[in-house]
Design goal:
Blueprint (H helix, E strand, L loop, with lengths): L1 H4 L4 H20 L1 H19 L5 H50 L3 H5 L3 H20 L7 H5 L11 H24 L1
Length: 183
């Protein structure tokens, strides 16, 4: 399913699944340092409030736990980066090469009937959007696209462009109606 949805190769599909798993593991490992921080804060609050605290007894344990968690977080982040971003850009390069090969095989009359700048912009925009989705190991929508207010229909058309065209049509209709009412 992911292979067809994102125009991936067999290897790219397997790598996407590995990237999703690595991202999940990485995010789960980020919970542990927060738990340790809560335990330290709890012990510090016990010291401040005058209650009995085992802070001195467990200081070495807290320090060792911090070092171990730092190593675990570092390793999982490294794994996640290599399983998502590095693999994503290799797959994107492969996708662009395959696309260029398909374009090379098209007859010249195809290019004579199309605006080449529009065709290039559409194809490269779609490749970039698929690259972003794949590199972020997210299935339908990336936070980058949300920040840019640029959502992409996987069929190759920007949804916002459709909405803008529809709004323009509605505005034309509205302005025509309002002009008729004024006259």
């Amino acid at each position: 399913m992911l292979k067809r949805m994102f125009a991936l190769s067999n290897q790219g599909s397997r790598d996407l699944n590995k990237g999703i798993a690595a991202t999940t593991l990485s995010n789960l490992c980020l919970i542990a340092p927060v738990s340790l921080l809560v335990m330290v804060i709890w012990e510090l609050l016990n010291v401040i409030s005058g209650q009995e605290s085992s802070m001195r007894d467990h200081a070495a344990l807290f320090i060792c736990g911090t070092v171990v968690m730092f190593i675990i977080v570092f390793l999982t982040q490294w794994l996640q980066y290599n399983k998502t971003y590095t693999v994503a850009y290799k797959e994107s390069a492969n996708r662009r090469i395959v696309l260029a090969e398909k374009l090379r095989k098209l007859p010249l009359s195809f290019f004579g009937q199309r605006d080449l700048s529009d065709l290039t912009t559409t194809i490269m925009g779609d490749c970039t959007a698929l690259e972003r989705v794949f590199s972020n190991a997210c299935l339908l929508y990336t936070s980058d696209a949300a920040d840019e207010e640029d959502s992409v229909d996987l069929g190759g058309r920007a949804i916002n462009k459709k909405k803008k065209k529809e709004k323009k049509k509605k505005n034309k209709r509205y302005t025509r109606r309002s002009k008729k009412k004024q006259h």
